[in-house]
Amino acid sequence: MTGEGGALRAGGEPGGRGVGMGAAVGTAIAVLALDQLTKALALERLVPGIPVPLVDGVLSLTLVMNPGLAFGMLSSTPAAWRWIVAALSVGALVVLAVLAARILADGGRVTRVALGLVFGGAVGNLIDRARFGAVVDFVDVYWRAWHWPAFNVADSAISVGVALLALRMLRAPAPRG
Description:
Blueprint: H1 16-45, E1 52-55, E2 59-66, H2 82-103, H3 108-132, E3 135-143, E4 146-147, H4 153-171
Antiparallel strand pairs: 1-2, 2-3, 3-4
Helix pairs in contact: 1-3, 2-3, 3-4
């Protein structure tokens, strides 16, 4: 599609790449704001390790400071080595940025929202690592003695975003070669 003066716009739609970036950035900002707000409330109102049942036998709010990666992976890493966890988080953001640069313009609205979900969640958790040396988790889903690792809004956004990107990749036509 051509713009004023016949210039070709990236993305082939009105507004070109800027429209795609706007959807991704807007989603990321919304996720980041909601994530940080809910974490602030959890820190203010919950006592670490003491569950507050919401749906008896299924869902509680339980404040947990997670020094590891997603779902508690590497949480037993000694404190002196936690910089590795932060470096892995930054590395994941860089990889995602490269992926985003490749697919943002022609990925469609769902892809843009998915990337915004992942970026917003990743930045939210990175802020926690910088502030507390750990991620603030508080959603506790369980059944009897089985507990899913505690999580937060950022983790949920990342999970949904990655699932949407995976679906996009599965639905993409095979490259011709």
